[in-house]
Amino acid sequence: MGKAEFGTAKYLNNQLKKRGLQKTKFYCQICEKQCMDDNGFKCHIQSPSHLKNLSNKLSNSNNNSKQMIEGYSEKFLIDFLKLLRINHGEKSIGCNKFYQEYIQDKDHIHLNSTKWKSLTSLAMHLQQSGLCSVEVNEELDDSDVEKYTIAYIDKSPESQLRKQQTKERKIKSDSETSLKLLQEQIARG
Q1: Residue 33: CB partners within 8 Å, gap ≥ 6?
Q2: Domain boundaries, the chain
Q3: Nearest Cα to Cα of residue 53 among 24, 71, 28
Q4: Of 31, 38, 70, 149, which residue has the fewest beta carbons closer than 10 angstroms?
């Protein structure tokens, strides 16, 4: 079958499909190419251009595929944490909900090209490395409640200083309030 002719309904339908986000499992990170379905992805993987790109990427990483995957994992983690820090700060958010925000950028590194095979394994890695706090919700009665919620842990010196100043202000205001109450009690007799 040939390509759909310009202006036909099939052509317009294909153009609409290309505009939106497609399934991430049909994305080739090496070629940065999105395929429409499983058959297209299979054909792409066997294509000479993909094999050439794969050999070029492998030669850049000294024929070590683990090093190449590690590079993608590092880029993914940097972008993921940067977006989490900018959009949500230290507030908790559902892991899947945030991942949906992350993949809205068409040029993102896909999770299937990293060393983490699932969002759960990524969340556990973030918790073990101390980059995020992860809460596991065992009660999944409500459909809006996600199993994993993540919150960025800001370890920057500015953040530590800001937290310390807030703590000092709270202690100061508490002591001022107690002193004021004591003076009122003394005035009353």
Answers
A1: 27, 44
A2: 1-60, 63-154, 156-189
A3: 28
A4: 38
DSSP 112: G
> Nearest 5°: phi and psi at 37?
-150, -175
CATH code that applies to domain 63-154:
1.10.10.2030
Rounded to whole angstroms, how far apart are CA atoms 112 and 126? 17
Instruction: Indicate the pTM of the whole model.
Output: 0.70
Residue with tokens 């530590």: 160
The one-digit pLDDT tens for each residue of the chain (189 residues) are 567 788 888 888 777 776 666 677 888 889 988 888 899 999 999 999 999 999 998 888 888 889 999 999 999 999 999 999 999 988 999 999 999 999 888 788 988 889 999 999 999 999 999 999 999 887 766 666 678 899 998 887 776 677 777 877 788 777 788 888 888 888 887
CA distance to 14, 24, 26, 68, 69, per residue, from 45 (Å)? 21, 15, 10, 17, 17
Strands 93-94 and 27-28: unpaired
CA 171 distance to own-chain centroid: 37
Question: Which residue's structure tokens are 């294909």?
Answer: 14
CA nearest neighbour of 83 among 65, 62, 105, 61: 105
